[in-house]
């Protein structure tokens, strides 16, 4: 489960168990040990990064170590978590 928060024109998403490491932004098809349905997990992550890339929605990675939040930006053929 992920949680989307929206208030006064600001937006944030808590990723929950959808992602366990920021590397999954760069490579959303990278499976996590916890993916019960690996193909569906990959599709879900890819759809998420495509939906939130370049959008000013603060992404809060429930399982990310510091820094645990930032914005998804495209970097070439992949994505990354930008801190500003």
In short:
This protein is of the alpha+beta class. 23% of the residues lie in helices and 31% in strands.
Write the layout of secondary structure elements.
Elements: E1 3-7, E2 10-14, H1 23-26, H2 38-52, E3 57-60, E4 69-75, E5 78-82
Parallel strand pairs: 2-3
Antiparallel strand pairs: 1-2, 3-4, 4-5
Can you characterise this structure?
- By secondary structure, the protein is an alpha+beta fold.
- It is built from two helices and five strands; from the N terminus they run ββααβββ.
- Strand 1 and strand 2 form a beta hairpin.
Largest sheet: 5 strands, mixed
Provide the helix percentage: 10-25%
Distance between the termini: 26 Å
Average residue-wise pLDDT: 90
What's the helix count?
2
Spatial sequence of strands, sheet with the most strands:
1-2-3-4-5
Q: Report the structural category.
A: alpha+beta
Uncertain segments are none
Radius of gyration, taken over Cα atoms and rounded to an integer in Å: 12 Å
Q: Assign an overall shape.
A: globular
Strand content: 25-35%
Annotation, overall tally of beta strands = 5
What is the H/E string?
A: EEHHEEE
What attributes does this structure have?
about 80 residues, alpha+beta, five-stranded mixed sheet
